[in-house]
């Protein structure tokens, strides 16, 4: 079984700090992976660079964190990348204010499509240039984003959805 060379992260961190100086907010090693924080204006460029120059060929996950009232930027997009050849992982973080959009990464990784839609649906963060920015999990008429910290724990009372959910069932019963 192959293992990550411990010097690989140090080399990657040093390279990112030198080549991206002034373009990133912060870069460090944490929990055996490099962590980079940057402004959304640099996101696509950094992700392309990581894929092309450092073989981060897999977007493992992307998600969002809601820091309601705890940080200046309410949200943080978090991207987890993996290099299948070197076994390296990198976490890329992008702070976002309320209502701020973030660039889509579909042109770099096609697999970003549904995770971006999931973040849009559950957190309300929109992705620029996404080909189909619409709900993925919640019903189309659903109001709100249930993973935000300001969303009521008991929900808002979705009685308004009952008719639209039952309509296909009622129509099917009429046909029989």
Tell me about this structure.
- By secondary structure, the chain is an alpha/beta fold.
- The protein has one domain: NADH:ubiquinone oxidoreductase Nqo5 subunit (Beta Polymerase, domain 2), CATH 3.30.460.
- Helices cover 31% and strands 24% of the residues.
- The protein is built from four helices and seven strands, in the order αββαββββαβα.
- The protein has helices spanning 6-19, 43-54, 113-123, 159-175, and strands at 24-30, 33-38, 58-66, 75-82, 89-96, 102-103, 127-128.
- The strands form two sheets. It has a five-stranded mixed sheet with strand order 1-2-5-4-3.
- β4 (75-82) and β5 (89-96) form a beta hairpin.
- The longest helix has 17 residues, at 159-175.
- 20% of the residues are buried.
Give short descriptive properties of this protein.
Beta Polymerase, domain 2; alpha/beta; two-stranded parallel ribbon; 176 residues; 5-stranded mixed β-sheet; 4 helices
